[in-house]
Amino acid sequence: MEFIQKIRALQIGKRKTFRRVLLVEILLMLLGIVGLFGRNEVYEYPSEGVTVNTGVYQDNMTIEHISLKPGLYRIQLHYDTDTNMKNFCIIEDDTVGYRMLRNSGEHLYQGLHETDYPLWLLQKSDNIRVTVTYGGEGSYTITGLTIRETNGLAVIFLFGVVVLSILWNLLYTYVQYDREYSLSVPQKGIHFGLVLLLLFSSLPLLQDAMLSSGDLGYHMLRMMGIKDGILAGQFPVRIAPKWQQGYGYASSIFYGETLLYVGALFRLIGFSYITSYRLFLLFINALTILIAYYSFRKIFEDRYIGFLCTVLYTLSVYRLSKTFICGSLGETFGILFLPLIAYGFYRVFTQDIANKEYRYSWIPLTIAFTGLVQSHLLTGEQVGAFTILLCLILIKKVFRKETFCSLAKTVIYSVLLSAWFLVPFADYMLRGDFTIQNVSGRTIQYRGLYLPNILFTFFRNGYNVFYADNGMAESQPMGMGIALTVALLLWAGMLFFRKTAHLRKEEKALGNIAGGFAVLAMCMCLSVFPWDKIQSLNGITAMLVSSIQFPNRFLTIATLCAVLVAGVVAKEIKGQYETHGLQLYFAGMMVLTLCSSIYLMDDMLQTGNSYRIYGEEGMGSGYIAGAEYLPYGADATLFWTHDPYAGEMVAITDYHKDGIKIEMHCQNRGDKTEIVELPLLYYYGYRAYDKITGQELTITTSDNFAVCVEVPAGYEGTVQVTFVSPWYWRVAEVVSCLSLLGLIAGVAMEKKRERKNS
């Protein structure tokens, strides 16, 4: 509260410079708001304007000499074809400047008859052409072209003005605060260092492309699914409506996507696909830095050590590899929350239980576990195992009344806050039969690392993760990095030579536990760790071990614990050698970090392939990684957009599909129930109703798990098919919302009561 009172005392709003800048900001915002209107031109081009070009290597059809002003457009090519993903439509213009025209095109599909993808045009042109390339199979015809103008660029401009205005106002306030209250050089140095850290950790994002990575396409489709789901009226999004050629995919139910809503927001604003992804990763980097600095500074009660640990953690080899080379966003999200979990446990187990602040000790843990559950359950599984081990080590403290209540509150509130995700997840896992439930036979030990993997110094870009087959050639960079390895060795030396006299009891225990956990987690990454034997014990261990997929995931825990050890070592060095010793240690760790992490980033930027995907339609929607969330036995290669399949006695007219919503007029002229198969993948929750009477029709599935509607004999009417969340899912959503509001209100009221009493 003292900080807020100081800000108010500055009276920023009364300063002339601020008022002038604020006036400019308001004028720019008004300009952006005005630009939102009048952007609705529609340009029609009939089929007579199509030119057929025949070449030796490739045939195509074009519509040329299109004139457009700068803007964001939707390209709707009307066509007929008898193939899927063989022919491709794209916009071209050889006369515009560099990157002034951006689009990724779209494939043609037998069941769609129309493209609908974005075009970003940043300068006026009279020479735009639409080209449809023939893929060598089947046939296609173009029946026309519609180009629809949108207000997308105006929305982007307005968003940019708002964000830059907020950043400028914060910077202005910071400068005035410094002038009035004289921030210390160390404080300003830390702030400047955190900004530099964000810059260096985001180097791969400062190009107009995204590094190619193993799971990049999958996570980009997850973002697309959220965006499409919101536009289709879902919230929260349960089924991604355009995934798998419009059949839909329930990734959101099995795989927490809370943070991905931020990335989807960028896409909804109008940014291109790749720009949205880069902005989202920039946001994740900033959030990781802030959470790490807050947590490590609180643990070690020293801003320098907190900053050092933040650098080591943010630039850790494993985090950089998972974020930019593997594209494993789930693990990146898990890494984001781990420092807060470390701080939460440290506070619960070391803070004086008589302290009034102890009653709030469960809040950081609750926030962290809630975020972890809603981001990456596999990381949660690992953290859960080490949490059990930690509680066994500190069993006496666990059963202190105050500590036990804090831990119990953490569990209860984490479950309540995540109920909106956990209830649907549990419902499907108990009710359904999915691929993810039938992978217990997948072994992982042969995917383990070799010891040299962990102890590398100069890591390089690589994609080999099957070391049993390929050895270590072109290895994916998976290891601790030389800086964290040195920190563990220094701590071992301090223990061996008994050089820990300047540490408090709690800090020494932190070093011992974190060091032990780091070594254990590194051992669990190795190919010699007996994963196969553990997996063979029983059905539960088989499922748990198989779900890990890659033993190197335990480097997540090892990295966090090694960073904690580095902080403990820094605390002891500061105690022994004071500021000069800490400075020397700080400089040495920075140099070692540069050796591993910055060298790795340089190499990945020089040798990695890049993606430029402006609209998601250009890369298709069929990629589902390991297909874990398909009904078991479903063949995804058969999912193609098509009109409904029905028997001869059923007439279907006025068919319309909008995402996972279908409306059609059905007439069953026969004397028995007929089946209509729809291009939707069946998940529990689909319902079919008569539009007029509300009569519910029975939903069944085809042999390949497509949604089928049973049409009774003699029925005639308009049928609506859509996904409806069960009532208890909705109750869970309400419970999570009320729990969040209750938590915020409860803490605020308690703090207010304390201020009155003090």
Give an overview of the whole structure:
The protein is of the alpha+beta class and 758 residues long. Among the domains are: 2-36 and 155-181; 42-148, Jelly Rolls (Sandwich); 441-612, no CATH class; 642-725, Golgi alpha-mannosidase II (Immunoglobulin-like). The protein is built from 24 helices and 21 strands. The longest helix has 53 residues, at 555-607. The radius of gyration is 29 Å and the shape is globular. The mean pLDDT is 90. Keywords: Membrane, Transmembrane, Transmembrane helix. The chain crosses the membrane at residues 21-38, 153-177, 249-270, 276-296, 303-321, 327-346, 358-377, 383-399, 411-430, 478-497, 509-530, 550-570, 582-601, 727-749.
Largest sheet entry: 5 strands, antiparallel
Q: Which stretches are low in confidence, meaning pLDDT under 50 for 5 or more residues running?
A: none
The number of helical elements comes to: 24
Instruction: Give the structural class.
Output: alpha+beta
